[in-house]
Design brief:
Blueprint: E1 42-45, H1 68-76, H2 80-92, H3 107-136, E2 139-144, E3 147-152, E4 161-165, E5 173-179, E6 184-188, H4 190-193, E7 198-202, H5 215-220, E8 224-227, E9 239-243, H6 256-260, E10 268-272, E11 277-278, E12 283-285, E13 289-296, H7 302-305, H8 316-349, H9 361-366, H10 368-382, H11 391-407, E14 413-414, E15 417-418, E16 420-421, E17 435-438, E18 445-456, E19 459-461, H12 473-478, H13 490-497, H14 501-515, E20 520-524, E21 527-531, H15 535-546, E22 549-555, E23 558-563, E24 566-576, E25 584-590, E26 596-602, H16 604-610, H17 616-634, E27 638-647, H18 649-663, H19 669-680, E28 685-696, H20 700-709, E29 713-717, H21 722-731, E30 740-744, H22 749-764, E31 772-777, H23 778-782, H24 786-797, E32 801-805, H25 809-822, E33 828-832, H26 838-843, E34 846-850, H27 857-861, E35 864-866, H28 872-908, H29 922-932, H30 935-943, H31 949-954, H32 967-992, H33 1006-1028, H34 1034-1057, H35 1066-1071, H36 1074-1097, H37 1102-1115, H38 1177-1186
Parallel strand pairs: 17-29, 17-33, 29-32, 30-31, 31-32, 33-34, 34-35
Antiparallel strand pairs: 1-8, 2-3, 2-4, 4-13, 5-11, 5-13, 6-7, 6-12, 8-9, 9-10, 14-15, 16-35, 18-19, 18-28, 20-21, 22-23, 23-24, 24-25, 25-26, 26-27, 27-28
Helix pairs in contact: 1-3, 3-29, 8-10, 8-28, 11-28, 11-30, 14-15, 18-19, 22-24, 28-30, 28-32, 28-33, 30-34, 32-33, 32-36, 33-34, 33-36
């Protein structure tokens, strides 16, 4: 709130002047801005452009026309696989080791892979470029000596005064100079934090003289400003304006330095703060126009400083994949070394038997190391495809397409809001979650508050047991039409009619509710509309209006409340805003009798400490009110206390003088202001309390139960009081009577440590093998040292549910990090909806943001954003599980198919003394990964479905039964590829090279046999997809046989129309041989059918198949698209002992989300309130991140 007084000061900035704002770009080739911490505070003059500072151009794209190629190549070759294939291509050009006649054929598929990735990067960055251009080329009105002229946003400089019309966006960060509405304007910050409620900004009182100036006069004004260096704190601005004895001291052009040094002894210095400051990206509402002084431009604006790159996240599967790639590479090196040494020593041992090679025995004996390295290089080229070149780009494209499918899934949509996938590389991680951390308010609940109960001077209203005391329909018609109110206690209105002391106290109570807030009023079609920064405040003000106390608005510093036929006016002197540390807010007003009153509301744990301890009536009233608040908490209501005190004029004047002085300080300004706020908010008189209901979201109970049944442990992290959190947990099925509960709430370190040790003992003795819930307060966590935090984790690991109450945003982040650091090989997921959840969301492996009442800040920072909590069912149990299942198969399959095509060289070497020899045509060999085997596995990874989503949602136990990727699964794929490659080579080579004779009497030579091997490998690899697919659509079948046909067509073309290749005219020779088809049949029987039998027969018994068919036939109607296993696809992932409790005759999930908690909390002694006001949360998050 803007201060109402200003003082004549000596210039506090005189020692800094003249001032240089310029900063140098850093770096050599690619210049970058210095970190904002390294910049300097600024001094500027109105209407004098500062050309030392950057213009208003922004750029969010990564590349420019000139930097795309070098920067993207640097990014592409930061991947180890690309560097590997680049080196291999270079080795192929060395004649001594080359197997491709000196041609780097591997560079073609490498070029394709890089081109695909670069093209995707280009498309994504081009969208950002178009958006940047649209932003930079917008038109703004800038005040110049020639009046208002149109300029592009990118041409605006610091020092300009701009005019913004209603509905337009602010092009830069500005200070309010003058407005069309007596120095007040309304802005919407939807682009910044997603909030649609309006916020008020004000012209500083020192600038009121500008209201009478026209554009020409305003352009001639030169006012000195000194303010903070650029920083990312959205809701913080500190600065001063320096005024002169005569505003129009010069009509001529003045230099900047002469103005800075003018009349330093007679300057008036006034404090500026965030109420005078408007951010770039805000829009002007309910105000015709505003003039603003530009103070930050371009990358220096706060919204751009907050547009930092998110911390890159990678999935567990990707980490394992990188490990497997390194492992395969080392295996490749070992095999290459073995093959090279075997070749050299075999030639030495059999020198006399191979004279046709014309080897020099002396050279072999004296240069063993050199010859070994030479052959090692050749074998390295032959075994190049041990590392799958297309794996990275294939997985990347698959995840991108999976993300599109998630976004377009109707079951992931809510109220026309679709799920947004912002980090598609975590798709499979959704199927591997072990711990879920969730906020309560706005996440589990709707964050739509309803005024429910009140306690006024020791008397409670709203908890009505007698039907005769409930307002009937006729009574409700007489009341004002309001929202967010569910109050039907007739007794309040009866008491209000009595002309006694208690009725006057009721009036005092509701005037407190009507005045102690920061709500803005606007009029739509003659009706009042409240714009609240907090749903709690809106519910309280609506409750006051429902009871007859209607807040009309703020007019020229006067707050107006309508009661009956009276219009009560209170002068607003000061607002002490809510922060998470203060957990309260206060306003200081002056009534019509000039009495100054401080009104305070906030968390009961904070207000109790501020009450007048010497007032016996206060203490007696507190005991009664605390009992009422406990009753409200038993119903799951959010509670707070109201208090006030009268101030004398002298008390207020002395305090405001210190407060204004503190606001002008440059060092420890915030700490001084907080100290003075605490000083005035003491010795308060209690007047009552409130209870507000925050309703659960739809299907929260069902969702929680299914997530728990899937094996995921749930942690609820909330700022609410312990009783409220417990009762809400009962309502959403997180807690039940059958659960054992360990409650830890301590006021000191000894008690906290004792209860942690006691809880561990109870788990090991009394609660062993029982379902257990842990409830702990934020204060208890603060008292735990590092040793006992580890014990806390040990205790929490053995609990199915953990509820942490009274935790701050920083503690939420620390708890997530604590679990990640101390419980290994787990995936954490955090769910939140507000800016105070951003740290928690970014700290977890997976961040889920809910687009809610508190804005979209959490949704923007998250990896996935959803509309409602219940969508987690579909996202985790179906999409997460299926993406994990399919993607882990994709990774293993890529290693398998490369081993199948590469290892025949190894097996064949036992026939030729390990002489380095390539069996395949080098060009077709490079097409193997790119064209012949890539599409079917992509189709599988995108479309395959083991079970329908309905079936998986009804059986959440299946979430944890899918195979997990580990060294054993990799070993299985590795052995499968090695074994099948041996089958192929040891069937084909003896059967074809010497025994296969065509009709002209010719035998097949080596190139034909090699291409036969190549053909068999392609057929086996593509049919393998058919084996492990659960559903085969027309598209998957076409992709499998289309890949085989594509190979045959390219082979036929190269064989028929080229004469320089070794495979020339081998196609007809090979495919006209009948023996080729017999061998193919035998290989398919030994590989494909054995795979099919092995993967199915060992898992399913006849009874298990009967059980699956029965449940599938009952729960799923006949579909036009069936799997090839009939009405029920088999689950190779389900252990037999899980079937007894896996299937349900009917859906046992009852929707309890609309019910009030029915389990009262006994022996409570912890009270408090989590105020949900949307305040400077992002600033706090940034500070916490820095600490």
């Amino acid at each position: 709130m803007q201060n109402s007084l200003s003082e004549l000061q000596s210039d506090p900035w005189s020692s800094y002047l003249p001032y240089d704002n310029k900063y140098e770009l850093q770096g050599c080739c690619f210049k970058t801005r210095p970190n904002w911490r390294d910049m300097k505070d600024r001094t500027i003059i109105t209407n004098i452009q500062d050309h030392d500072l950057p213009d208003n151009t922004i750029r969010t794209c990564k590349y420019t026309l000139w930097t795309f190629l070098p920067l993207n190549l640097i990014e592409q070759f930061s991947k180890m696989a690309n560097i590997y294939f680049l080196i291999v291509g270079y080795l192929e050009t060395i004649d001594l080791v080359s197997i491709t006649d000196g041609q780097p054929v591997i560079w073609f598929p490498l070029f394709v892979v890089i081109a695909i990735s670069a093209f995707k990067d280009f498309l994504e960055d081009h969208k950002r470029y178009i958006s940047d251009q649209d932003e930079n080329n917008r038109i703004a009105l800038v005040l110049t000596p020639n009046g208002l002229i149109e300029k592009k946003w990118q041409q605006i400089l610091v020092g300009d005064i701009i005019r913004v019309e209603q509905g337009e966006y602010f092009p830069a960060d500005v200070i309010v100079v003058k407005t069309s509405e007596k120095g007040i304007c309304f802005i919407e910050t939807k682009n910044l934090d997603g909030e649609t409620n309006l916020k008020i900004k004000k012209q500083h009182k020192a600038l009121q003289f500008t209201r009478n100036l026209n554009d020409y006069q305003l352009q001639k004004e030169h006012i000195l400003l000194h303010y903070d260096k650029p920083n990312p704190y959205l809701y913080k601005f500190n600065g001063t304006i320096t005024m002169y004895p005569e505003h129009n001291f010069s009509d001529g052009e003045q230099s900047r330095d002469s103005i800075i040094n003018y009349d330093a002894q007679h300057r008036k210095v006034y404090q500026l703060d965030e109420v005078n400051f408007i951010l770039r990206g805000c829009s002007l509402r309910n105000t015709h126009w505003i003039y603003g002084l530009v103070v930050y431009t371009g990358f220096d604006t706060k919204i751009m400083l907050n547009s930092t790159k998110a911390r890159p996240k990678s999935s567990t599967l990707e980490s394992l994949m990188n490990f497997f790639i390194i492992l395969v590479f080392f295996i490749q090196l070992v095999i290459c070394l073995f093959s090279a040494q075997y070749s050299v020593f075999w030639q030495l041992d059999n020198f006399m038997d191979i004279p046709y090679l014309e080897l020099d025995e002396n050279d072999l004996q004296t240069n063993i190391v050199f010859r070994t390295m030479e052959r090692w290089g050749t074998w390295l080229l032959i075994y190049t495809n041990f590392v799958p070149i297309s794996l990275l780009v294939t997985l990347e494209m698959v995840k991108y397409l999976q993300g599109i499918m998630i976004e377009n899934d109707k079951q992931c949509m809510s109220q026309n809001q679709k799920t947004e996938v912002q980090t598609s590389n975590l798709n499979e991680e959704l199927g591997n979650v072990k711990y879920m951390f969730t906020d309560k308010t706005g996440t589990i609940t709707k964050n739509l508050m309803e005024f429910k109960t009140i306690s006024i001077f020791g008397k409670s209203y709203g908890m009505v047991n007698n039907r005769s005391q409930i307002l009937n329909s006729d009574d409700l018609i007489k009341r004002p039409e309001v929202t967010n109110v569910d109050f039907k206690d007739k007794q309040l209105f009866n008491d209000l009619k009595q002309n006694d002391d208690h009725s006057r106290r009721i009036i005092e109570y509701f005037l407190h509710l009507a005045l102690c807030h920061t709500i803005l009023v606007e009029y739509e079609q003659g009706k009042i509309k409240y714009n609240a920064s907090s749903p709690d405040e809106l519910a309280l003000l609506m409750g006051a209006k429902f009871c007859g106390f209607e807040y009309i608005g703020l007019d020229d510093g006067m707050m107006m409340v309508k009661y009956k036929d009276q219009l009560l006016k209170y002068k607003l002197l000061q607002v002490l805003e809510f922060t998470s540390a203060r957990k309260r807010m206060s306003v200081i007003v002056q009534d019509q009798n000039n009495q100054i009153i401080l009104l305070c509301k906030g968390a009961d744990s904070m207000i109790i400490n501020l009450l007048d301890k010497q007032n016996a009536q206060n203490q007696e009233l507190l005991q009664i009110t605390e009992q009422h608040l406990e009753q409200y908490a038993e119903k799951g209501l959010r509670t707070l206390l109201l208090a006030q005190k009268d101030l004398s004029q002298q008390q207020y004047d002395e305090w405001i003088m210190k407060y204004l002085q503190a606001g002008l300080q440059t060092i420890n300004r915030d700490e001084l202001l907080l100290s003075l706020q605490d000083q005035i908010e003491n010795n308060l008189v209690l007047i009552g309390g409130t209870g507000i209901e925050d309703k659960l979201q739809d299907d929260v109970g069902i969702t929680m139960q299914k997530i728990l049944n899937s094996g995921i442990k749930i942690w609820v992290l909330t700022g609410d009081k312990l009783e409220t959190a417990i009762n809400i947990s009962y309502a959403c099925n997180l807690l039940s009577d059958s659960q054992q509960k360990i409650v830890i709430s301590a006021d000191d370190q000894f008690e906290a440590q004792f209860k942690i040790n006691q809880g561990l003992d109870m788990i090991k003795s009394q609660f062993q093998n029982l379902s257990t819930a842990l409830i702990i307060s934020g204060d208890s966590l603060i008292h735990l040292d590092e040793k006992h935090l580890i014990k806390f984790i040990e205790l929490a690991k053995q609990c199915h549910t953990v509820i942490a109450c009274r935790v701050s945003p920083k503690q939420k982040q620390e708890l997530v990090q604590l679990v990640k650091d101390n419980i290994h090989n787990i995936v954490t997921m955090a769910v939140g909806d507000g800016a105070n959840d951003v740290n928690m969301i970014t700290a977890a492996n997976i961040g889920i943001g809910i687009k809610g009442v508190e804005g979209n800040q959490a949704a923007r920072a998250a990896d996935y954003s959803i509309g409602e909590f219940k969508i987690l069912q579909q996202l985790l149990l179906y999409h997460g599980r299926e993406c994990y299942r399919r993607n882990q198969v994709l990774v293993g399959y890529n290693f398998y198919k490369n081993l199948l095509i590469v290892l025949p060289h190894f097996w064949f070497s036992f026939y030729n003394g390990f002489s380095p020899l390539n069996l395949y045509d080098p060009w077709l060999y490079q097409f193997y990964n790119m064209f012949y085997t890539s599409v079917p596995i992509m189709i599988y990874a995108i479309l395959d479905q083991q079970y329908s989503s309905n079936f998986l949602l009804q059986n959440p136990q299946l979430y944890q039964t899918t195979n997990k990727v580990n060294l054993m699964t990799f070993f299985f794929w590795f052995c499968s590829g090695g074994m099948q490659s041996a089958i192929v080579i040891y069937i084909v080579f003896p059967s074809m090279e010497l025994t296969s004779i065509d009709k002209e009497g010719r035998i097949l030579f080596l190139s034909s046999v090699g291409m036969a091997l190549f053909c068999y490998a392609i057929i086996i690899v593509n049919l393998k997809v058919f084996v492990f697919s659960y559903m085969n659509s027309i598209g998957s079948v076409l992709s499998i046989f289309g890949s085989i046909i594509l190979y045959l067509l390219t082979y036929m073309f190269l064989s028929s129309f080229t004469n320089k290749l070794d495979i020339s005219h081998t196609f007809i020779h090979l495919f006209s041989n009948v023996q080729f088809y017999f061998i193919l049949s035998g290989i398919i029987v030994l590989t494909i059918l054995s795979d099919l039998a092995l993967s199915r027969w060992s898992i399913f018994s006849e009874q298990q198949l009967f059980e699956i068919r029965k449940i599938r036939d009952k729960q799923e109607p006949a579909s036009s698209e069936k799997s090839r296993f009939g009405s029920s696809p088999p689950s190779s992932m389900i252990p037999p002992n899980k079937f007894d409790n896996l299937f349900y005759e009917e859906d046992e999930y009852d929707d309890t989300s609309a019910l009030l908690p029915v389990k009262p909390v006994k022996s409570r002694k912890y009270t408090g309130y989590a105020f949900a006001q949307q305040e400077k949360k992002l600033d706090e998050a940034l500070r916490n991140a820095e600490n």
